[in-house]
Amino acid sequence: MNQKSTLLVRYGEIGLKGGNRPAFERALCANLKSALGPLPGLITLRRRGRILVEADVDLKAHIARAAQVFGVTSLSPADKLYLDAEAIKKRAAELVQESLQQHFAGREQVTFRITVNRGNKAFPKTSLQLTLELADLVLPANPSLKVQLKGAELTLEVDIREEEALVFARRHAGPAGLPVGSMGRGLTLLSGGIDSPVAAWMMMKRGMRMEFVSFYSFPHTGPQSREKIIRLAEELGQWQPRTVLHMVPFAAYQEAIRDTCPEPYRTVLYRRAMQRIASLVAARRKCRALVTGESLGQVASQTMQNMAVIEEASRIPVLRPLIGMDKTEAITMARNIGTYKLSTLPAPDCCTVFQPESPIIFGRLEDALKAEEALDIETLTFQAVKGAEKLELPEEE
Ligand code: ATP
Ligand code: MG
């Protein structure tokens, strides 16, 4: 039909969104373009329940990028053809042969099925007729094919649609979820640990465009901590169009807490300070929620009591997608999304600076507020926000 290469993109949940559907589809198209682009002739076409991505270069080489676009449930490199049975059959037969050569070379037997979908009832052949004609063409020519309707290794699919026919033989899994940006913007408190990158990813998957804020304690922590955070934010940035990371100097605040507040409360007070500063950054950047990697009971600062004391310092909702997850589950996810290796690089986090011998486990808000009376919170907070550095990732070379 044309010289362009075509990717058939399926989406799940956004198909359910009633009147919002066009907006979700537009967001998905924009994100697909941004993930794949710039490529010559790159366009997206909206079809009922599907999106077609087209370009003047072979899109098969770019599938891995498209498979990182939230909202996509699966993808198939497809051939787009006129609604002409002979042309469809010819191309389908070639495609089966190519697939056998590329993916099943040397195999004596490959289980096979044909699935024809006729969405366009004006097409002169029924699904069954076309299926049988395709089988007559393909099976005698490829003796290794053994028909098996359930769990076939190779499925030749033909979609007869209003506008065109699509022929394809492979499905690649997408990450599912909702298009990034369709659910507003969030701000993840990104540490160099395993959990907060996973938390960010989970909320991005639910449609949040994510910005990051990270606190560092120079000179108590060195440049490798900064490098690690930038690399983590860049890795997570693969899942959305653009990424902003705010690096906030935190040493002065920590020193003031160390010098004037009761030692057991240090960690809780660091965290309150982080949420206070992060809410201000969020307000400036129109982020509607903070996201953290906290999980109930994982460490002393993550009891219900302490989390309540910490959260009180935030002006906006604090989301903790890992709250009910075990550490092993978080580790498995970190491996799957590609952040685990970076997270386990050695580099100190600012929370370990002046760490108390025995941190408070069941903190009380009155005590935290009392301790903070000794701090010049306004100045410390203002200075941290003022010292924040805004990085747009990936950084220019
Ligand atoms: P993580 O693996 O994400 O570091 P953790 O289990 O080590 O989590 P903590 O170190 O207690 O937990 O931190 C709890 C949460 O506080 C983190 O998930 C993160 O969202 C936030 N946080 C901690 N340290 C920092 C930091 N230096 N900068 C930004 N956010 C931080
Ligand atoms: Mg940590």
Describe this structure in words.
The chain is of the alpha/beta class and 397 residues long. The chain has two domains: 169 residues, VC0802-like, CATH 3.30.2130; 209 residues, HUPs (Rossmann fold), CATH 3.40.50.620. Helices cover 38% and strands 21% of the residues. The chain is built from 13 helices and 15 strands. The strands form two sheets. Strands 1, 2, 3, 4, 5, 6, 7, 8 and 9 form a nine-stranded mixed β-sheet that branches. The chain has a six-stranded mixed β-sheet with strand order 14-13-10-11-12-15, sandwiched between helices. Strand 2 and strand 3 form a beta hairpin. Helix 3 packs across helix 4, helix 5 crosses helix 10 and helix 8 crosses helix 13. Adenosine-5'-triphosphate binds next to helix 5 and strand 11.
